[in-house]
Amino acid sequence: MYGNKNLVYRFRITLEETNVWRLIDVPSTYSFWDLHVAIQDAMGWLDYHLHLFKFRPKHKQKDIEIGIPDPDFGDIEASWEIPIASYLYDPGIKMEYLYDFGDDWVHSVFFEGIMARIKGIKYPVCLDGAGACPPEDVGGVYGYENMLKILADPSHEEYQSYETWLSGHARNYWPYDPAHFDPEAVKFDNPQRRYKLAFS
Asked: Is the pLDDT of residue 1 over 70?
C-alpha cells in the first residue's frame, strides 16, 4: 500500500484568475480520485463534470494525466487506480487540476508538505481558504466576472434573471457573496460513496 496511515498531505488549491483558494490536509493513503473528491468538497463544486490532474514528475519527459479515462481526451489514467503517494513524495510539486471541460476551471494544486496526523482530527480537513466558489455552470472565468458585475448593480437589466437562476439552482446560491468562505462549514463526502454515485 502506498502512503502511511499516520501521515497526511497538505495541499493549497488556487482557482486561477480568481481570489478563491483552499488549504486542505488529506490522508497520504488517498488515491487521485479521493483527492479529487476532497478538492470538489473544499472548493464547493458539485462534481457534475469531468476532471483531470496534469503534472510532470521529476525525471519524466512528458506530462502525466490522471482523471476519468475517455478516448476523446487522450491517454488518461484512471484516478481511482493511482495512489497520490506513487507520484507525490517530495513537497513542492505543483499540479494542474482541470474541472469541467466546458467552463474550463483551472486550479493550481501545490503540494505543501507531509504532516503527522493529529489525534482527534478527522481527515480530510479544510484548514483555511478565501472566497466563495463560483456557481456551477456560470460560464467559466468570463461568465463569473460578468455575473459579479451584474450583481453589483441591482438596476442592471439582467440582475433579476441572475437572481432567479441563482436561487433556483441545484444549490441555492442566493444571495451570492463572492467573499464568503468558512472552512469549518466544509463537509467532506466519502470518496467511495461518490464513486458509486458517479458510476452506478
From this structure: no
Q: Which three three-digit cell numbers place residue 98?
A: 482541470
Residue 58 confidence (pLDDT): 75
Cell numbers linked to 173: 446560491
Q: Structural domain boundaries of the chain?
A: 7-131+181-199, 134-178
- Cα separation of 136 and 131, whole Å? 15
pTM over 0.90: yes
Q: What is the pLDDT of residues 114-126, one digit of tens each?
A: 999 999 999 999 9
Class of domain 7-131+181-199: alpha beta
Residues in CB range of 119: below 8 A, 6 or more apart: none
Residue 86's nearest CA partner among 40, 39, 28, 35 is: 28
